[in-house]
Amino acid sequence: MRRLTPKQLQAQHRRQGVRPTAEQAPAAETVTQTGAGEPLAEYRVTQEPYYRAVGDEIELYEAAYEIRMPMMLKGPTGCGKTRFVEYMAWKLGKPLITVSCNEDMTASDLIGRYLLDANGTRWQDGPLTLAARHGALCYLDEVVEARQDTTVAIHPLTDARRILPLEKKGEVVKAHPDFQLVVSYNPGYQSVMKDLKQSTKQRFAALDFDYPEHDVEVEIVAHESGVDADTASKLVHIAERARNLKGHGLDEGLSTRMLAYAGSLIARGIDPLKACRVALVRPITDDLDMRDALDAAVTTYF
Ligand SMILES: Nc1ncnc2c1ncn2[C@@H]1O[C@H](COP(=O)(O)OP(=O)(O)OP(=O)(O)O)[C@@H](O)[C@H]1O
Ligand SMILES: [Mg+2]
């Protein structure tokens, strides 16, 4: 299982001896064809990721996968979307290719480009093409960050055609039967300008994610950080208070991820007050009054 940004993908290509056309490849260099035997071997999720179901999302996802329905996971940061996809890839026994989208990403970063190697130029599939050709789950994390012309590249893959035209190469890739596209999306963050087009949104079924209910979140925080249930429960109580301040001075609530970080510090012997200050309060706001309010919530419980 690898999580590669387009830049990291380019770096990986360089390590493998494949040079972008702009660079000159040394004549004697041996070029490794990316995993000629099993192209997606490095993307297999070999160990079961810990995922605590919060509702019927696993059954729903499995049903959606049966018909290869493109999926959109919506929810605030740090609430378990990425972990869920990793878990589903493991459960379905499919490789997972993750792309962190950003506004510098071009369609070529997703689809592929010609590279110059010792024998001349050759085509290098991008992560989306790799997934479509060989049958992986392709996870586009924070898909709204990508420019619209990049997002549109996924359209023919996410309707009944299930094809990916590689215009520069003059090839049309027919998606492998196992291929599925899954994207994540944080509805709170983007401006109208950055929202997805309706023609993109309407190609997906969507699962809503949110912070879990108290007892479930306690279980997750305890598991992830190694603190006992009592300490985890205190952390969740603090988060619940902070979440009530969303829209009243806080842009976003404290995530399950932050609680796991705070718990991990506590489990390593850091004083809980300090751990909460460093891992919960300081990162989430610079507003001094808000920090005081959150510090007060922390001292109520620790
Ligand atoms: N249901 C869950 N089961 C197991 N772990 C969870 C769950 N929900 C949250 N977590 C914990 O919270 C952390 C953050 O979750 P994750 O990385 O999946 O968030 P995300 O929703 O993808 O956030 P972002 O939008 O910022 O990418 C995980 O590393 C894990 O420790
Ligand atoms: Mg994520």
UniProtKB/TrEMBL annotation:
Residues 1-39 are annotated as: Disordered. The keyword ATP-binding applies. Keywords: ATP-binding, Nucleotide-binding. The keyword Calcium does not apply. Pfam families: AAA_5, CbbQ_C. Residues 217-300 form the CbbQ/NirQ/NorQ C-terminal domain. Transmembrane segments: none annotated. Residues 71-204 form the ATPase dynein-related AAA domain. GO terms for molecular function: ATP binding; ATP hydrolysis activity. InterPro entries: ATPase_dyneun-rel_AAA, CbbQ/NirQ/NorQ/GpvN, CbbQ_C, P-loop_NTPase. Coiled coil: none annotated. Belongs to the CbbQ/NirQ/NorQ/GpvN family. This is Rubisco activation protein CbbQ. It comes from Acidihalobacter prosperus. The lineage of its organism: Bacteria, Pseudomonadati, Pseudomonadota, Gammaproteobacteria, Chromatiales.
